[in-house]
Amino acid sequence: MILIKAKRVLKAGFVNFWRNGWVSLAAILVTVTTLFTVGSLIFSKAVLESMLNHIQDKVDISVYFKTGADEKDIMEIKDSIAKLAEVKSVEYVSAEKALEDFKSRHKDNATLMQSIEELDANPLGAIVNIKAKQISQYGSVAKFLEGKSGAQGDSVIDKVNYYQNKKVIDRLSVILDSAKRLGVIVSLILIGVSFLVTFNTIRLAIYSSREEIEVMRLVGASNRFASGPFIVEGVMYGLFSSIIVIMMFYPFILWINPKVMNFFSGTDLFAYYLSNFWQVFAVLFGVGVVLCALSSLVAVRRYLKI
Questions:
Q1: CA 233, CA 237: separation in Å to the nearest integer?
Q2: Do 88 and 158 sit in the same domain of this protein?
Q3: Is residue 25 located within the same domain as residue 83?
């Protein structure tokens, strides 16, 4: 009996969907707008994260070692830094490489280059460049290095440039956190407005079938059986809308990707779309089905007072 009722509900839902073609089309178009907003927020979040990661990758702190420091001591400190949970990567630059890089940066300064050539020994020491996983974690890394340098003069560490860059690092940390919070707030507002528009459209679509619902009630149909076909319609709205939206994003992202790559260096939105195609589709499908089915259920049960 339950299986028979389920088949009847499904059949009624499919029949109503195709019979009320214009109403279904209007509901799908509104749902497409909503899902396109949701999808745009997904891709915008990907661009924002890529941009923030790009900024974070530009930030690091450097540990400058004393000239003539034993390489074994330097490597021990480097290895201890790499084991920290906050550290993303550690790069060792030998004293010779540091001198080569210095000469390369100042090759147009003849006076400085002549002064370097006149020196008998390399005036630069080895360097260890450190990248933390989060900008806010550089402070704890700097404290760890303070413990390594100690109070005695026998430390191989000359200086750590964290405190020279602290203001910039703290300011970037605040900017990144603010950007993430603003993105969440804007996303919630847009999704909320889109959901309200979709709900009202589906409610109006169901209102046009109020006489059909009244007849079903008069012949003894239960609330569940009467609302079932409209929930099936809502699921179909979500299914077709998600398919349309994921197809719309292909030419849209293909068109906008060069502009995004020029403005946000290193952000390939089209590659993100291809690599996350099924995940994005699953999100759109899930949001569309839940939104439309729930809107149908609420409209039938509360608006029409079954």
A1: 6
A2: yes
A3: no
Q: Is residue 286 part of a domain?
A: yes
Are 289 and 191 in a shared domain?
A: yes
- In order along its 306 residues, the chain shows pLDDT tens digits of 566 666 766 666 667 667 767 777 877 888 888 888 888 888 887 887 777 777 777 778 888 888 877 788 888 888 888 888 888 888 888 878 877 877 787 777 777 777 777 777 777 888 888 888 887 788 888 888 876 654 344 577 888 887 776 777 677 677 767 777 777 787 677 777 767 777 777 677 666 666 666 666 666 556 566 666 777 777 888 888 899 999 999 999 989 888 877 776 667 888 888 888 999 999 888 888 888 877 777 777 655 554
Q: Are 125 and 98 in contact (CB under 8 A)?
A: yes
Distance CA 126, CA 98 (A): 7
Distance, in Å, from the CA atom of 193 to the CA atom of 41, rounded to the nearest integer, reads 14
The CATH code of the domain that includes 125 is 3.30.70.3040
* Cut 0.85: pTM above it: no
Q: Which of 103, 137, 162 is the last residue of a domain?
A: 162
- Look up the domain containing 224 and give its range: 2-55+173-303
Residues 177, 297, single domain; the answer is: yes
Give the Cα separation of 102 and 108 in Å (integer): 11
